[in-house]
Amino acid sequence: MVKLWLIAGGSHTPTGLVLLDNGLFFDNGQYNHMADALINGHVDLGMPVNKDLAALSNPYDTWARTQIAATSGDRTPILWDTAFKSGKYYSYFGVLPALFMFVPFKLITGSDLSVGSAILILALINTILSMMVAVQIARLFSRSKSSCSLGAAMLISCAIFMGLQIMNLVPVRFFYQLPQTMARAFVLIAISCWVQSKLSGLNKAWLALGSLAMAMTLGCRPQFMLAAIVAIPLFWEEIRGLWLQGQTGIRGLVREVGVWACALVPVFLVFAPLLAYNKVRFGSYLDFGANYNLTGFDMPNSSLPYTQLFPMIFLYFLQPPVISALFPLLTKTPQFLPLWAPMQNSYGGYLTTIAPFALILFMMPKWRIRLRMHRVSSLCWFLGFYALVVFCFDVHVVGYDSRYLVDCGWALMLLFAMLFLSIDSERKTDESKNVVSVSETDCKEHLGAFTELSRVMIGLVTAGMALGVILNFFQLQAVEGTPLWWDVYSWFLFV
What we know:
- By secondary structure, the protein is mainly alpha-helical.
- It has two domains: 2-109, no CATH class; 115-430 and 448-492, no CATH class.
- Helix content is 55%, strand content 4%.
- It contains 20 helices and seven strands.
- It has helices at residues 2-7, 30-40, 51-55, 62-71, 96-109, 115-141, 150-163, 166-169, 177-199, 204-216, 231-234, 236-246, 250-282, 309-318, 350-354, 368-373, 377-398, 405-425, 452-475, 483-489; strands spanning 17-19, 25-27, 79-80, 83-85, 88-90, 322-323, 330-331.
- Helix 6 (115-141) packs parallel to helix 9 and helix 10 runs parallel beside helix 13.
- The longest helix is centred in the middle third of the chain and has 33 residues, at 250-282.
- The chain is globular and about 80 Å long.
- Residues 431-444 have low confidence and may be disordered.
């Protein structure tokens, strides 16, 4: 990963304002400007505003802004993908990446933190967390009935890493991914801590730490807060137990109140300053500023029809990759839609290119009994609900960009992990057919042989992972002219 990051440019990411084809300017240093604003005690970016832009009755009209950029006597740059309200520029991206990364770096070194360095830091953190959450899911799954194999735990760890798109995002050196990957990191921390709390008899410290991490997502990317619903199925048995215990007497009631305080107090402590920050900027506690974005369409006055969700589902998840006979072998996919929508380049769907091994999710009903037996069936339903709601929200607002799969892809990977562990646990019960006998190992317990169906499914998953590695490798060659592109292209000069 670090090698890929270095080849893509490392910490030498674009800085300053970049003139776009439409005459507007993209601000590569938006997070550094946000850090400067926080250090200096104000909430707007402090960027100069074109007087003709400020005079527009509807500054969000893209055509009007491009006309001003071409004809205005005021040559002050008009910014792109920046929130604009009451004559000032703001950032609608989450404030916590600035607060946790860019501000400390600026205070310690006096210099700006490069976006590339921030991307690598979060990529490494997400990599570690992908392994941690895989172990926790395996422990949660194995708390009853049977154990999962070490091989299954290792495989879901690799699968989650691939499904989080970490390798796809590292070479993309723009700040857009920072709030998403930080929010995802907090979600993975929260779920890991909550599982640890559950497995430790509802440990209050782990419970509070998980709630604190989940609350942090509000300051990164607010839609990730919906992930808090996984606490309902995860702790349902404990919630019922606390309720019954609270009715038995004062001691039970005090314990119930104490547990709920550990779960909720960290949320209020985080929410209070973040919502106040919204109030100061936009006049409302629940206004995060995304609706004031100066982008490629009139954000406050535009809305994609819900019928667009159906072709978008295909594009995001099921669009087959387009294979070419020439390097880089993987080319852009066609994106024909009934109506115009914001579109970025696509090289195939999530389930056909990025994580083809996850196609077995369509087989989940087959293993519903085993999921119920391991007491994770409700958790699967809630994860699926989260993924569906967040996906529909993102697509309805912003159209197509594979980066938005970061918002829901982690939930699909946890679904995959629990399904695969269910497949792995489906073993033959006839001891005479076991490939490992008790006498051949020091373990008191051992796993039986796979059933024929389980063996086939595990083979398909393994093949899907191999295919995903190949497709993702060639997808990284999509940007022509990079050092990595030239190195790999040299392998195919004989074609």
